[in-house]
Amino acid sequence: MRSERKLDHIRHALSHSESPIHYFDEVDIVHQSLGKLDWNQIDISIKLGELSASSPLFVNAMTGGGGEKTKEINGRLAKVARAAGISMAVGSQMAAIRNKEERETYEIVRKENPDGVVFANVGSEAGWKEAEIAIDMLEADALQIHLNTVQELVMPEGDRDFSNRLENIKEIILKAHIPVIVKEVGFGMSSETIKELKSLGCRYVDVGGKGGTNFSKVENERREDRMEGFNSWGIPTPISIMESRSMDYVIASGGIRSGVDGAKALILGAEAFGMAGPMLKTLIEGGESVLNRRIDHIHHELKSVMMVMGCKEIEELKGKPYVLHGETNNWAVQLRA
Ligand code: FNR
């Protein structure tokens, strides 16, 4: 049942029309004319607290559940991540925590990429025991805990009890020996959420904002009495990044399609950026070599922005001047008020 549902997700996520607004198109970087770096001086490696990576770009969590198809996709994504030298998160491991037979679906990621940076992934219904199994399954370098309240509510068979969530997050952060990243799945994060997460000891978030993969639409496709009002729910990713600035480490995801979008996320305050839906779509439609070419292209675009902006290192992008337009500007103005 669960693995069938996950394949449904993949099918729906890939067949969906794009978000009506590309929020990163409403962020303009203020151009600088006096580029004076040598391309070879530009370094895109990052340090994110205890995590080091050769690029701020990573493959974000996808394809939880079990089954041969999921295992195949995870293996292929891991090969791509290894060839590109980028980090990779796996999809929710909750099913494999409960059912040992499904563990190969994830173990393949470590097998294909023995030295890579890999993130484990659980829901906030997991306590420390479950989280530890997820981490060990992958010898993970970090753990993502996903928050997907809206998705669960729109999902006909979704969870309805979130009353243990805060305690679970707190316990996992306290006991884990690796970074714990609390992440959204496409509805974004507010400054109120960030404040509460900080009080639980959280230092890393992935804002998973609105503008990319839309799990309300995905789940609505699967129900007869649709909850249409949730199709436009959420905080746009650029705004979520701005709302999260008081967090130690901010990862951006949700609607990032290019190296220029990624650079905008870094300018707005993120330290790294993830892509999920576009990676999966490219893999399924084009195969591994096409996805590797796309990743190279994203890196080329990112370095090009760094060249124009005179940034030798990724962290120098943060705080460069930008201008907001449209919906994104409406959000920024009204939230500041
Ligand atoms: C996801 N995402 C996700 N996130 C998570 O934490 N656990 C999961 O199991 C999944 N599963 C999943 C399946 C599929 C098919 C997709 C496309 C996505 C959410 C993902 O990590 C990311 O936060 C959002 O998709 C927003 O990023 P994009 O897709 O707009 O780049």
- Fraction in beta strands: 5-15%
Stated plainly, the CATH topology is called: TIM Barrel
Name the strands of the widest sheet in spatial order.
Answer: 4-5-6-7-8-9-10-11
Poorly predicted parts: none
In whole angstroms, the N-to-C terminal distance is 46 Å
Strand element count: 12
Which distinct ligands sit in these coordinates?
ligand FNR
Oligomer: single chain
Class from secondary-structure proportions: alpha/beta
How many whole angstroms does the radius of gyration measure? 19 Å
The first-level CATH class is given as Alpha Beta
Architecture overview:
This protein has 14 helices and 12 strands. The chain is of the alpha/beta class and 337 residues long. The protein has one domain: TIM Barrel, CATH 3.20.20.70. It has an 8-stranded parallel β-barrel, surrounded by 6 helices. A hairpin with a 2-residue loop joins strand 2 (46-48) and strand 3. Helix 2 packs parallel to helix 4, helix 2 (68-84) packs across helix 13 and helix 12 crosses helix 13 (288-309). The radius of gyration is 19 Å and the shape is globular. The N and C termini lie far apart (46 Å). Ligand FNR is lined by residues 9-10, 13, 60-64, 91-92, 121, 144, 146, 183, 185-186, 208, 212-213, 253-256, 275-278, 280. Residues 9-10, 13, 60-64, 91-92, 121, 144, 146, 183, 185-186, 208, 212-213, 253-256, 275-278, 280 line the site of ligand FNR. FMN binds at residues 61-63, 92, 121, 183, 213, 255-257, 276-277.
